Amino acid sequence: MGVEFLKGHGTENDFVVLPDPDGLLDLTEERVRALCDRQRGLGADGVLRVVRPDFGPWFMDYRNADGSIAEMCGNGVRVFVRYLVSEGLAPTGEFTIGTRAGQRHVIAHEDGTVTVDMGPARVFGTSSTTLGTASFDGVAVDVGNPHLACVTTTPVASLDLLRNTPVFDHSVFPNGVNVEFINVLGDGALRMRVHERGVGETRSCGTGTVAAVTSWLHGTGQRTGKATVDVPGGQVSVVIEEDTSTLTGPAVLLARGELDQAWWDAF
Ligand SMILES: N[C@@H](CCC[C@H](N)C(=O)O)C(=O)O
Hints:
Blueprint: E1 3-10, E2 13-19, H1 29-36, E3 46-51, E4 59-64, H2 74-86, E5 93-99, E6 102-108, E7 114-117, E8 122-131, E9 134-142, E10 146-151, E11 178-186, E12 189-196, E13 200-202, H3 206-219, E14 225-231, E15 234-240, E16 245-249, E17 252-259, H4 261-265
This protein binds the ligand N[C@@H](CCC[C@H](N)C(=O)O)C(=O)O.
């Protein structure tokens, strides 16, 4: 028997899902890197290991494509929830899951979309980033994981995030940072591109969209509000409240199979 896997995505932020209810898989950094590699592995932005702890709700063990561990992944939660519901491990409707950033209340809707209570989005300062020769000012936002969310009038479609890696201030972000570039399309309508810590550019980042809306509101002197966020992989909706935030968007499972045991054992 090989290792069971599924492949899924949330607005094209894609994940390998590894069901591991009893926590038996030895998910090393090297295995994560191999799984996420788009040539020698299945290819993904990250891995979601599905674990059932002795106490408490199903736990999402999230890993970035480079093998690093992150506290939270908003798109990952939606895909994780879709997996639990499709397997009959959780009901359509409301329940709670565990993440490294704490427990998250979710709603699995009948139409396949998922709403995630993302917890508070906390502004903890301002900073800037350099991309190539251009500099962007932004707001530092903690959504369980760190973000630098930069609202800019430079069309985000024109940015070269493939050849350029955002340079950031390590004294503000000692553990690295996810960097968002945001255009305001209208009241309550944003467009975003993102360079994720531990991955590179992705086609969507759920926590990043929450940071983006928080940054836009902050810039307009508001603490609460809502917006849709267009990302290269689709669109999500974000609501920012005083004490918490929610993210709603699609979640897709597209394949399942078995990893060859010899391939797994090679790492
Ligand atoms: N794509 C995720 C965020 C994943 C973690 C991030 N790369 C980090 O290191 O903090 C999302 O949808 O939120």
